[in-house]
Design goal:
Length: 1135
Amino acid sequence: MTTAIVPNSAAKPAGSTRAQWLRFVLPLLAISLLIGVIGIVGYRYLSEEIRRETQRTLAVIAEQKRQQIEGALTETRIDAQLYFSTHSQLEMLFSQWLDGGRKNSATLKRIQSILEEVARVRGWGGLAVIDAEGNPAVVVGEADIRDHGALIRDILRQPRIELVDLHRNARGQVVYGVLAPIGGVGSIPLGVAYLTWKADQTLYPLVESWPVPTRTAETYLVRRDGQGVRFLTPLRHRQDPPLSHTRSLTVPDLPAARAAQGEQGILAGGRDYRGVPVLAYAAAVSGTPWLMIAEIDEFEAYAGIRTMTWATTLVMGLGLLLVYSAGYQLWRRSRQHQELAALQAQRAAEARFRVIFEQAPLGVALLDSHSGHITEANPRYAEIVGRSPEELAGLDPARITHPDDIREGLDQLAQLESGKIAGYRLNKRYLHPNGSIVWASVTCAPVQVDSEESPRYLAIVEDITARRQMEERLRISEERHRLLADNAIDVILTMDLEGRYSYVSPSVERLRGFTIDEVMGQSMEEALTPASLLIVRAYFGRLHANLAAGRPPEHFRGELEQRCKDGSTVWTDVTASPLLGTDGTFVEIVGVIRDISERKRYERELRQVYDAAEAANAAKSEFLAHMSHEIRTPMNAVLGLAQVLEREPLAGNQRDMVERIRSAGQSLLAILNDVLDLSKIEAGQLRIESRPFDLAALLANLDSLMGQVARTKGLALRLEAPPVPLGPLLGDGLRLEQVLFNLTGNAIKFTEAGSVSVHVEAHDATETSVRLRFAVRDSGIGITSEALSRLFMPFSQADAGIGRRFGGTGLGLSICKRLVELMGGEIGAESEVGQGSTFWFELPFMRGSESEMQESATKPAPAPSGPRLVGAHLLVVDDSAMNRDLVERALKLEGATATLAADGQQAVQLLKTRPERFDAVLMDVQMPVMDGLAASRLIRGELGLIDLPIIAFTAGVRDEQQAAARAAGANDVLAKPMDLEQMAVLLAHWVRPRFDADKAQALSTAQPAPIEQPPPAPIDDEAFPDIAGIDRERAAQRLGRDRAMFIGLLELFVTDNADAAALTRRDLAQGDQESAARRMHTLASNAGFLCALDLMTAARELEEAIDKESPELDARLVDIGQQIDALVAASAPWR
């Protein structure tokens, strides 16, 4: 908008006095008249301006107070929702109190404590919690609900937050408040919370305050009350209490009445409650029935203009009178003063403009309206375009504008010059002297300079290069990411907090078969299988909770199964990352979905292969365990009997044969141990134990044992130890010795002439550790290079003839390799055919101390001076008659006696009758009827024999097998095949026999005599029962002629088996063949133990018939029932 300032004109004096007077008076009168007119117009204009300015001020004040009141009420509503909504602390405590029958005073006190703290912090005057029946549960401060019962019940029916209008409480105080339901939106409220404030503490100070000093201005609240208007707050010019003053709506020009009838904004021509003319403004307070009125007396509003008018009129009057007396000089002086004031104002305006122009943060340029050239530019504009202000003066802006933007700028200037537009704004590019492009936002409008007739154009320029570059980078980044997403193999998507898709990349169609539009319309239930849906819902629940609590959002990574269009499913790897805005608010979730169907297939195949390998390994372990048991059981008899025979007086050739039997058995046992060691290593069950050992003693033992073997073949065995003693070392000395014995034994075996040497070197020796290199060299047959490559494989030898010529299984070197690797070392071999071989290995060891060596050293057991188990009586349980006989003979050599049992059930029966008779139990593990583990558990549990030693006698040598025996209740484990000395030492540790000194002396001095099976002793008819159906001689021999034990077993048999036939018939009638067969199996075992041989045979035949589902079961059951009855009747006199 163009403005112009026109200077006033001055009258010139006339030549003559009269002419001068007329020329002075007439213009003076004209000027006086003109001044009067201007004064009237000016007065009206200024009055209108003052009125508008005052009304704007009133509007600002009224709107500001209205917004403050609305903000306070909104904040209160939010607080009410926060403190009393679902899952808030107060809502949960109130719910607990209600669920507890309103009897939990602690919970009620905690609610009251929280309410008091909240009321104190929030500045609330009172706070009450009302239950669903409208009864107050907790009241804090001055919260009176007696007048709000109807509103409370309405809120319980229709939950909402409701304002309680200004009113007087029972104490006469003006209060107002808010009623809020307790509970979530859409649920039945648990109750209502009432928040209240005293108006004189919160509302009145806010309403009554005025930003500047004034005599008559005031603001107050009113509301329509029927056909009247009620004044709610204190009035400045009345002493009526709040809420007590009302006026009728028909009172003319009353601003409050006009506002109550719907008129808002500026209320012109009003008279207030005093009848005084006022300028007023009215605004409705949202969410309340209140109307905010701001007003000021017109008298005060126009006081300044009236004062100025009176003063001006007086001055003008005096001036006119003085003009007639003072004349021309006064007029002249006035003229000079006016010119001086105008000049000073102009200079002040120019100074202000210059300061703003030079220091403006934006570029400013003045353009000539005719040529469009720059007339003046500030430093900031010069900086933007890269030129000095002097260079810009008179420059056409088109010369520094990008060619593509010149036309638009000229068009805008043409429209501005023609008056079609009042100004324009555009974005253009300037050409910087350094060759860069400067983006600028240009705003141009015409301005009028006082001293010029034509306006100039004022251009304000803002440098937006950085913003444009950022926008361009953002656009390129968005296009790049969109291109990547649209062409990615993985599916890329975005979604909101409810799981609704906002973007899905095209690759989803290749993954699931659905088009993008189809996927965009799907819910999570339609996209995911039930199991995956539960995972996703749980994640969204955690995400909602974290965002609500202000915690960082959790990222998601998991495998989900998604539905495809053809009805199949596809496994995917899903990654989801929540994005937050700069203000921390949630924006969206970005997800990446990758097809892992192929990986899942590989995993299934790998799992199947792994399961098959595990099954094969388990089968192998089971086979080895079974093989161990089956081989060790007869080996136990072979080696044990050989050891017993060696203690007998034998002829020379007989002793030689016995030694050969024992030697062959030990060789077979060594092969078996090699197989089991390899199995343990492969299964990861072989443990390396680090203990202090003396290398010199180990080598001396090697020389002592293997040197004799070498000398027997005519070979020399040389040992070369490190020249400096190493002292105690920490490692598994036994396994090191095993490797050295194996390698040295092989060297001696495959060397016919010459020597074998064992060389030990120390490497990398420090104060705490040392690495030893062992090399076993021989001058034997040598090994081909082809054979060397497979030398350390299991069951592998140099060639097929080696086994036939030298023997062996090919396991030794394989075990050595595994043991060395388990100890952290490495092993290898070097050889030439006919030149001998060198087998070497290196192992790391930590250095030990002499104190550790002494602590780990074990004193050798003293040689026995005689039998060690004199007076002991043991229960020997084994299903092998040969093993039972062997153990009985071995125990007799140590001065002990034994009672024999063929299975665990017989052992339990014997211990039930006379447990005090036995000092220990030697229990086989694998037996029919009842195995040793089950029997051990019964002995410890059902019989309660906690202190009775149980020694597990087993062919199972694996760690888990021995651990199972100990877990079942065994005190110790004796491996098969047994060593008589080892068995004697072990039993002597656990057994505390009833010692007989004379018998021990006799046994220790007696010469060994052959152990012969004693003939049956004559039976005392009165001492041992003779019962029809029982082999009396066998029973007496089996039980060592113990009459009391026999009778106890007989009573136990009758108790357990008298109804066996009837119970078996019941089992068969119920279709439980397994229980029936098991009952007959037990009957056969019990009858056999009593030597009721016919009954035992009949029970076994019936068991077999039940298993085969024979049709003759009834007849057999009748027969066996009769046999049982006959045995029970015949044994009655003895029970």
